[in-house]
Hints:
The protein is built from 11 helices and 9 strands. The strands form 2 sheets. A 6-stranded mixed β-sheet has the order 1-2-3-4-6-9, with helices on both faces. The chain has helices spanning 35-50, 71-74, 81-100, 117-123, 151-159, 161-170, 176-182, 191-206, 210-221, 224-243, 246-257; strands at residues 10-14, 19-24, 55-60, 106-110, 113-115, 127-131, 135-137, 174-175, 187-189. It has one domain: Alpha-Beta Complex (2-enoyl-CoA Hydratase, Chain A, domain 1). By secondary structure, the protein is of the alpha/beta class. It is 48% helix and 14% strand. The radius of gyration is 18 Å and the shape is globular. Residues 257-278 are annotated as: Disordered. InterPro entries: ClpP/crotonase-like_dom_sf, Enoyl-CoA_hydra/iso. One of its GO terms (molecular function) is catalytic activity. It comes from Streptomyces capitiformicae.
Amino acid sequence: MSLPVTTEPVRIVHHPDGVVELRLDDPGRGNALDLRTAEALRDRAVEVAADPGGAVLLRSTGGSFCVGGDLRAFAGRGAETGSYVHAVASAAHAAIQALHELPVPLVTAVRGAAAGGGIGLALVGDIVLAARSARFRLAYTAVGLTPDCGASWFLPRLVGPRRAADLILTNRVLTGDDAERWGLVSRSVDEKELDDTAHRTAADLAAGAGDALHAAKALLRAGGGEELRRHLTEEARLIAALADGREAQDRMASFLAAGGRPKAGDRRAETMESESVS
């Protein structure tokens, strides 16, 4: 029997072992965040929050986890650029907030590129698994923007302020193994083992002592929800304001004109690759 064809960029899959999967499912675009995808992510995350099962698994289809905001959707909007970017960020931020506040454990599985907003989406998990070959890069400053999706909130808490500044200001690239050493992810695994390991981890949590796991997670997240909410609001404001400026618009146009690669000699962009769009 053939499976139904779906054009939804984000899907929910309910597994019989109590795992509820939130799947980024637009591999042809690297699961990039334009307004349609960000709103779908928000809506599906809210659905999952209303019925999270015993554990939630966040993963992607295709070769990349999420390459961040879709610069092709941002470019060419002129005076409307900032409002569009703000709408994308706000929708994605509502998803981040809903996932952060899940009462059940959240496992994320990262393969390929996690860039821009994909970083914050990956780091919202309680347990974050990455393929050894995964590539993490912030990439915002290379196109004249600032972090969103909670990246500038999660990173200092995970790796400390010095390393967070290094990642955000220089666009340093980390592999999955690097990310484990730095503390961005819980552990790295061989790419061929990522999906099975992530699902098994979520299933084990779903089969665990639910009341204790919920209470332990509440302790770990105590007091952070409202602080994150305020920070996400400021991230959205700043990235939208910069997107309206000439520097960001010129840098985005230049990046796209170069086929998704930085201009020669642009050291701030030299670590970006063609699949990283913000």
